[in-house]
Amino acid sequence: MKRGLVLEGGAMRGLFTAGIIDVMMEACIEPDGLIGVSAGAAFGCNYKSRQPGRAIRYNKKFARDKRYCSWQSWLKTGDLYNAEFGYHIVPREYDIFDDKAFDENPMAFYVVCTDVTTGKAVYKQLTKSTPTAYDWIRASASMPLASKVVELKGWKVLDGGVADSIPLAYFESIGYDRNVVILTQPEGFQKEHNRLMPLMRIALRRYPKMIEALDTRHVMYNRQLEYVRQAEQEGRCLVIRPATAIPIGHVSHDPEQMQRVYDMGRQTGLERLDAIRRFWQIMK
Questions:
Q1: Cβ density class 94-133: b for 16+ within 10 Å, e for less
Q2: Which residue in 145, 141, 183 sits closest to 159, CA to CA?
Q3: Mean pLDDT per 10-residue run, the chain (284 residues)?
Q4: DSSP H or E stretch at residue 15
Q5: Residue 167: how many CB atoms within 10 A of its CB?
Q6: Angle value at C-alpha 284, between 233 and 267, nearest 5 degrees
Q7: Distance, CA of 85 to CA of 94 (rounded, Å)
Q8: Could you give the CA distance from residue 208 to residue 76 in angstroms, rounded to a whole number?
């Protein structure tokens, strides 16, 4: 049995996921591998570094800091979430990321990005905590329009959720046969066509394959939801999702709102802890 943890993105809805995985870490439950998309990558990396509480802590601390997330940053750098401050200065100076723990933890850690030249998913395993690894995580969470294209060692990439929002099938394809999937939308949710496509077509006009992927993202996502449902019914995965829509937008500057979403995740995690143990056959 190979235990996998699949983390959907969802921008600030990812704090719900952070609450769940913090409960799992505190209970000393560790998968063999984790794959995160967008916020699932940005917050999920703390699982490999064994740092529960870190995601909610720094998001609340810098919620109203213009250096972290602001229109000023977007106008100045092209990134709503400031790349240098959020992905390099914060983990090095303000809320230290435990590079040593990340490197020594045998848990495999993957992030998903979208190649803007092909519109296809890129699956990148990060084995060492380096500035380049931070940038792969940043790329996975770089939402179109809110972020500029990230160039990394010959790759041009953006938000992994465009090409593969819920990478259960990929994780199964590389041998993870008992997967816990954490979603950030409730049962019954269906994604609709992106209303910002006219702006996307202008902003990404140099990348027609990326525009095509964005234009059909809702179709891909809804098919993945069906795939997850089928896998759940067959017992191949355990799905954890919010009971209702998570009350937060893609961006939030409200620490109390962030805490409420995180607490929703913690409560859900506590409620599902025994189910996770049973599914992964972990003794207390």
A1: ebebbeeebeeeeebbbbbbbbbeebebbbbebeebeeeb
A2: 141
A3: 97 98 97 98 98 98 96 93 96 98 98 98 98 97 96 95 98 98 97 96 97 98 98 97 96 97 98 97 81
A4: helix 14-26
A5: 28
A6: 65
A7: 10
A8: 26
